[in-house]
Fold this sequence. Notes:
Strand content: 5-15%
Low-confidence stretches: none
Amino acid sequence: xxxxxxLVGSFLGLILFSPILLPVMFLVWIQDxxxxxxxxxxVSKGNGTFKMFKLRSMVVNADKSGxxxxxxxxxxxxxxxxxxxxxxxxxxxxxxxxxxxxxSFVGPRPNVKRETDLYTKEEQKLLTVRPGITDLSSIVFSDxxxxxxxxxxxxxAYNQLIRPWKSRLGILYIENQSIFLDVRLIWLTAVAIVSxxxxxxxxxxxxxxLGVSAEMIQVCKRENKLTPYPPPGxxxxxxxxxxxxK
Length: 246
């Protein structure tokens, strides 16, 4: 049922959003005469790899810097790219991946292998389903760039501040996934573009219905500054991105 929903939805979505995608693709191309797509390897269900399509929001070869996480003030982001990121247009192109079966509309966000190789045993659960365009964490941390802005090492900051809760929310989705939940999350993703506060209230309502801890609910309200926390399955905060935390 989920695959049928993904297949029909992605096909219709590509048709529906083509009047937006095509002009933006042209703007990306004309700014430096390079491909409007950034095709990046990501880890798939079962720990394999696939090529993920994104509208390119950065300069050519930006990935060769070795930095995986992107802060809002990252100099690699182009002028058109800032517009693309603000309205999440780079994610729309991933409808191609949904159509091909690499991804689903809803599921844990796909990650680079450098990060998944450092997953704890608990986080390995994230690789048991198709990655998605959106999920609970995509709404809660839609301002990831702003969260990481100002940190000298955005990758380490991501692992200390965002990963612990992003992984927990991904695992929570896997344990409670349903078509009904998928539809709610797709709707809240659209709402978040207009009003993140409204979308967060919707997320908190879902979390309360799922009976999660008060601590997770408080984090997902996003009313307080994020602080370092261990990823699921670990007791230590990530201090070294080259080893699995204990």
